[in-house]
Each structure stands twice: as C-alpha cells, then as structure tokens.
Amino acid sequence: MKPYRVLVTDVLAQVGIDVLSQAAEVDMRPGISSEELKSIIGDYDALIVRSTTKVTREIIEAAKKLRVIGRAGVGVDNIDVVAATERGIYVVNSPDAVTIAAAEHTMALLLALARRVVQAHSAMNTANKSGGSVDRKKFMGTQLAGKTMGIIGIGRIGSYVAKLSQAFGMRVIGYDPFVTIESARQKGIEWKELEVLLKEADVISLHVPLTDETYHMLDTRQFEMMKDGVMIINTSRGAVINEAALYKALVGGKVAGAAVDVVEAEPPWKTKLLELENVIVTPHLGASTVEAQEVAARDIAEQLLTVLKGEIPRNAVNLPPIPIEVREFLKPFMQLAERIGRFQSQICRGGIKLIQLFHAGQLASYDTAPLTSAFLKGFLEVRLSEAVNYLNAPVIARSRGIGFTDERTTEDVGYSNLITARVITTQEQWTVSGSLIRDVGMRIVRINQYHVDVIPEGHALVFEQYDKPGIVGRVGTLLGSHNINIANMQLGRERVGGHSIMIMLVDNPVPNELLEQMKTFPNIIDVRSVYFGPPLSETMQSP
Ligand code: NAD
Predict the structure, then answer these.
(1) Which residues contact 149 (CB under 8 A, 6 or more apart)?
(2) CA 9 to centroid of ligand 1, rounded, Å
(3) Of all atoms in ligand 1, which is nearest to the CA of residue 102?
(4) Atom 40 (ligand 1) nearest CA
(5) Residue among 234, 225, 269, 388 at smallest CA distance from 319
(6) Ligand 1 atom at minimum distance from 51 CA
(7) Residue 349 falls in the annotated catalytic set
C-alpha cells in the first residue's frame, strides 16, 4: 500500500503518472463532474488538474486531507487559490513548461490567418468532394515581413512571440506596465503606451493573464482606435476581449481577421465568432504539444511529491504568507505594506519606472526587507499570472526591470510608525502612506498631498474632483440605484472649492459602466476603482 492518494481530473502525460506512481496510488478521472469531484475529494492527498477542472471553494472545503493542488501548466484562474491558501493547501504550477508551445501556436494562428490556410483547405476539401474547382483569387494573403506586431503582455509567452515575429521580419512593439522600456528594448521590442500600440500595430497579439484589469481590455473603444484591416490573435484568455465588440469590428471590416485559441465561454467553446468567414478558432490548444505536456506533467508530479514529503516546492503559487524568521512584530506591518502595494498597483496608470519605499518611526530600527517584499507582493500579484509570494516578489520585480528603493528614517513624521510608497510611472506619480495606529488599527493616512483616514479593506472608489457641492449626492444616487451601499467616505482637500480627493468605501465592486457615467458628472475629474482585499482580521489591526 502506497502512502499517498493522488487524483488526476484532466488529461496528464504518462510520464507524470509514472513519476507519481513511485510513491502514490494514482486515480485518473478526466471529465469528472464537479458534484462527483466534491463527493470523492475527501479521500485524496493531492489533486492534479489542467485548465478544464474548476477547483472551487466548495470543492476545496470538501477536501479534508488535501495538501496540494498541481496545475500542469501556467494559469491558475480555474483554482480558488485564496480558498486553498486559507486551508493551508499548496497550489503549484509549471509556468515555464508551456511557453514555447503557446508561442508557436500563436505564430501558427497568425500564419494561418494571414495566408487564409484554413479557409483555403476547406475550399479544396469541398471542391475535391464535389468535383468542382477552387477560385484561388479568393485566398490572396498578407505578408508578415515589414508589418508591425503589437504584443500586449511582454511576459514569458509575449517575449517569445516577439522573438519569433522578429524572425519573420516584423517590427515588434509591446505594452506591459510591469516591463520597463529598457528591458523591452533588450528583447528587441519598442515599448509603447497601450493606445499608441493600438494605433500603430498591423497585428495585435494578447499575452496577459485574466485579471479585473485585463477583463475586456479590448472593447469597442479600443477596436475603434486600431488601424483599418488589423489582425487580432488571442492565445491568452477569452475574456480579455469583449467578443461581441470583436464580432462587430470583424463584420464592419475594421478588423480584417481574428484567430483565437480561447473564447469567453470555455468549455464548451461556444462562440458567435465561428459564424464569420474571417475567423479561425482552436479549442485552447496553446499548450498542447507532446513536449510541453511531458515537461509540465513531470514537473508537476515531482512538485507534488516534494510537498507530500513535507518539503517546499519550487513553484508554489501560495507559499505560507509569513516567513518563519520574520518577527511577530512585523506581521501586521507586512499586511499594511501589502495593502498599500495592492492600492498603488490598481491606482497607477502607465509603465512603472520606479518604486520608492520609506519606513519611518519605530519601523526604522528593524530590517524592513520583509515590508518591501510584502509591498511588492501586493503590487505585483494584482496583475501577474505567475506565482508571486513574499519570497519571490523582489526577484520578479528585478527580473522585470522594476527598480525599487527602500529607505529608513528616524525623522519625526507625526506617527509612531509610517510606511510610505511612491510609485513613478511613465504617466504619473502617486504617494501613499499607511500607519498602524494604537487602539484604532490599520489606516491609509495620506494620499499624495492629502491627509485621509481610510481602512484599507474591501472595495473603494478614488475620486479626483473639485471640492464643490452635489458630487456625493449624484454618486450616491447612482450607486443606490444599482444597489451598491456606501460604507464610508473620506475627503482630502487643500482648500475649499479646490482640487480634492475623495475615497468612498463600497460594499460591492462597481461596474465599469458606472465609473464611466460618474466621470461625466460635473466637477469630477477622474474616478478609479480599487480592491484593497478581504476584511482585515482583528489580530492584524493593532500594533
Ligand atoms: P506571464 O506572467 O509571464 O506574462 C504575463 C504578462 O502580462 C506579464 O508580463 C504582466 O506584466 C503582463 N500584464 C499584466 N497585466 C497587464 C495589462 N493590463 N496590460 C498589459 N500587460 C499586462 O504569463 P505567460 O506565461 O506569458 O502567459 C500569458 C497568458 O497566456 C496567461 O493568461 C496564460 O494563462 C495564457 N496561456 C494560454 C495558453 C493556451 O493554451 N492558450 C497556454 C499558456 C498560457
């Protein structure tokens, strides 16, 4: 009898099963329903999935013995990582295994689209069966050499697609707020703001994770900005494009053709795009090469056994939140730093140029490196698909060319402790300070030049505005009519009637359409939506 039981619910290459079988009983149940998975998961020590199985909170809560969930691939958006972390279950993935496969599939789609390979093949097939002939003029293609490839998301796959595109003689431009101009240049990519990329590219290829920010990042407005006759390739996640808007742009001729490996309703890959002749759709095959599957399966099997033996795996998406060596004292400050990081990541627009952290008051006599890691974790995890944790956050930031400095000061700053983060981007600069106040708890106390008093939890709206009457009423009425409750409100202003900032804590996320509506209200300059994170635990509140 082997000591562990492992359940595999998506297709896994044999090599992974062979590795696991050395120490575990392995049950293969591809295609299992979520109801059945929930009923049997309690018997297993480990679970392996790819992108099909949805590992929900409900399933995780039914998993009494589970110690690790392995994702044989990159994206973990089908796994409730927060629920797993809460129960002390490791989530491990294999981020590097599928990079080449996904990039090659991107090029396969691009070439097939540019040269109308799929349509020409179908026409040949039909002609062959009916004894007719093919009208070759219908399949006139487009050359790639000399064209501009616009890559959105210059991570592992985006960078490799850049390299392959260069080999085809394309000029490559790219947008990624977490990649500096210099590190893009080293890859032969001209870094551009998103709007510039949309205007200049002949081909646009998406390589971003699906996050709140990237959801529908290509929508009607973005399609309108593009060159006439642009080609769209998507091998990332379906929902980063508003499919209905893409459909319209294809029908209207703005977009000449689209080739996608991912769609919004997945599975069962239902998409209206298939009605159109200038579209190619594949069923999420980006990672499906024999080579990638073998590497991913072996890697994930080895990591599972590492966890089951009680050791730390190499690619844990959710390493235990507080490193053992960090003193108890720093724990609540790490949480504060992480919340400031999340806030800054969502509030700042443009490419990141520099992050400056200042630790003041009683913090000045401690090693503040864990606070910097916590800030970077909060800052990076909002947007990256790779596993960010306290240990690897600084490494990831450095590998992306994001510069950060960390200073300590004993100067009197008016608080017994103060963490300040200044983020400088290609477009703007935000400075945010937070403190742990005795008998009060964690607070954001300053945003740019304004003093505020904000509990960093839940959802918030950040308004830049002129301090004039009527704004709160209008916003409140709009939110109320959509059943969104205002929990708290804070105003920071320089003088009566002047430029001011308002933070409104709300009980639910505010949809984009409402934000757009608010931006049209008189005296509102801008509105941004931020999610600080779940409610702060009582234990973390007091210093
Ligand atoms: P990665 O983390 O290495 O790169 C993602 C990049 O996107 C990062 O550099 C990040 O800074 C950037 N990014 C985040 N938010 C952004 C934004 N708003 N605008 C522009 N850039 C932004 O990930 P990767 O390994 O390159 O994977 C990229 C995507 O491809 C993921 O969504 C992954 O799930 C998907 N993927 C799909 C398949 C497939 O089968 N089709 C296979 C593998 C990966």
Answers:
(1) 161, 162, 165, 170, 171, 172, 173, 201, 202, 203, 205
(2) 24
(3) 42
(4) 286
(5) 388
(6) 40
(7) no
Q: What separation in Å is there between the alpha carbon of 532 and the centre of ligand 1?
A: 23
Query: pLDDT 10s digit of each residue in the chain, 543 long?
Result: 889 999 999 999 999 999 999 999 999 999 999 999 999 999 999 999 998 999 999 999 999 999 899 999 888 889 998 788 767 788 999 988 999 999 999 999 999 999 999 999 999 999 999 999 999 999 999 999 999 999 999 999 999 999 999 999 999 999 999 898 999 999 999 999 999 999 999 999 999 998 888 999 999 999 999 999 999 999 999 999 999 999 999 999 999 999 999 999 877 788 999 999 999 999 999 999 999 999 999 999 999 998 888 676 778 887 644 444 455 678 789 899 999 999 999 999 999 999 999 999 988 877 788 899 889 989 998 878 766 766 568 878 888 889 999 999 888 888 999 999 999 999 999 999 999 998 889 999 999 999 999 999 999 999 999 988 889 999 999 999 999 999 999 888 877 778 899 999 999 999 999 999 999 999 999 999 999 988 886 434 333
Task: Give the strand pairing for 230-234 and 255-260.
Answer: parallel
> Where would I find the beta strands (DSSP E) of 377-472?
403-409, 417-425, 429-437, 441-447, 450-454, 458-466
What is the DSSP secondary-structure string of 181-202? HHHHHHTT-EE--HHHHHHH-S
Domains of the chain: 4-97+291-308 (3.40.50.720), 99-281 (3.40.50.720), 327-533 (3.30.1330.90)
237 is catalytic: yes
> For 130, which DSSP code?
H
Q: How far is CA 144 from CA 6, 118, 201, 422, 426, in A?
A: 47, 17, 12, 42, 30
Task: Name the closest-CA residue to atom 35, ligand 1.
Answer: 236
Q: Counting atoms of ligand 1 from 1, which one is nearest the CA of 262?
A: 41
This prediction's pTM = 0.73
Question: Is the Cβ–Cβ distance between 109 and 262 less than 8 Å?
Answer: no
